[in-house]
């Protein structure tokens, strides 16, 4: 099993990154290979809207630090995405990454039965952390899962950690480690 993990937090050891790292450790212990990309340390541009990926080639024309990550996602069995919620949405780093995945879609994707260029059968884990209570920002996970389903991911899990206020962050992370490990066990058989 091949896992690609995309860390969207600007905080190297933030709560979303910590949970994603635990997923990776569990996956490795179960025999998976893992590649991790920390978006905040990478040099890449957002989608340029050039449409080359729909008219002249089947991948993003930009060549930067994200090029290999996008290729690795094609080859991966599992995609793990983690981001804190800042200002009611995912981080800017994760949004720029998500925009670049536009190259995963075939031309005229809305009118096709096969909209995605990704091989079928992939699984995804979405880890979102936020200081706001659970009732806030629930649309973020829905939007992410919309894209993942459109790209052909059929087995998707979401872990949302809500309501941390600095002094309880470690407790909330610890409470969610079993859930992260459970998803790794489920995905890697």
Description:
The chain is an alpha/beta fold. It has a single domain, classed as Rossmann fold, CATH 3.40.50. It has six helices and five strands, in the order βαβααβαβαβα. The chain has helices at 15-29, 52-55, 66-75, 92-100, 138-150, 169-187; strands spanning 2-7, 33-38, 78-84, 123-130, 155-162. A five-stranded parallel sheet has the order 2-1-3-4-5, with helices on both faces. Helix 1 (15-29) runs parallel beside helix 6 (169-187). The protein starts with a strand and ends with a helix. The mean pLDDT is 92.
Radius of gyration: 16 Å
| Major sheet description | 5 strands, parallel
Q: Counting H and I runs of at least 4 residues, what is the number of helices?
A: 6
**DSSP strand tally:** 5
The coarse silhouette is globular
What is the CATH topology assignment?
Rossmann fold
- How are the strands ordered across the major sheet? 2-1-3-4-5
**Protein structure class:** alpha/beta
Strand % is: 15-25%
Number of domains: 1
Termini separation comes to 9 Å
Overall mean pLDDT stands at 92
CATH class: Alpha Beta
What do we call the CATH homologous superfamily? Answer: Flavodoxin domain
